[in-house]
Structure prediction request, 330 residues.
Amino acid sequence: MKEFDYERAHDVTGAVALLGADPDARFLGGGTNLVDLMKCGVERPARLVDVRELPLDRVRFTESGGLRIGATVTNSDLAAHPDVRRHYPALTQAVLAGASGQLRNMATVGGNLLQRTRCGYFTDLAKPCNKRVPGSGCPAVEGEHHNHAILGASAHCVATHPSDMAVALTAFDAAVSYETADGPGELPLAEFYLPVGDTPHLETALPPGALITGVTLPAAPVAARSRYRKVRERASYAFAIGSIAAALDVHDGVVREVRLAFGAVASRPWRARTAERALTGGPANAEAFAAAADAELAGARPLPHNGYKVPLMRNLVVAMLTELTEEAAR
Prediction:
């Protein structure tokens, strides 16, 4: 690991100033992803600016009835918070599915959003990787890609985004707040992650030197009837091979509102808007759920060894929405 300087920030303005003074610095929250990448040489910061103690560790209601989640709230505290469990249960389930208790105790909300892909070619410095070294190539296209993207990928990168939490946040139209030397800003999560295109090394739309300060969830009554399900290759904690956040409001057998977001199928959490449009106003039954999933997945472009993800995601959509429909009928 390369030697680095360490400084602890005492306020948001000071943290932004410290990073602005050193282009090779990085913000440090829980360090559960950044430190791993430093150990293998992917990240080589000259300085770490510790933001863990900043006063951004609260979860509170907004005036409009949504939730404001501070960037340094730990994953454990987020999952256990009674207002999150009551109003956004899929978010609690996603966080609990994401990692062990030890990691959740360290990981922060802001850091979770910025975690980088777990593609083996990205973390292996002996291999080319367009995300790590632009223009060097993407060996996963012809190599090991059984857990790579089927939606929104390109010939330049087929890696997937690893966050479970971000999938649930995407389903509920979350927005990310940040602070820069020029002042505060906000990005809808739908615009936060950039399309992979031919620039996979550009992962988010955050301005240079920006510090994430929090996430805002708008009020969404349908979110109280939501679930998150993660499919993985082993029962112990592992990254998803496919996941879904779903919420459903059914009245007299008709879908009044539905939210769907997929994980582990694209370079960013995938909001299934085509499926949502197909379902809204229609019957709440397995046939409609399957047809909506097929419409969403019609754009999938699987590689030779990850085509299994198409039926996997179709089955997840049908199973989750059927369970939510039956739950609403009870």
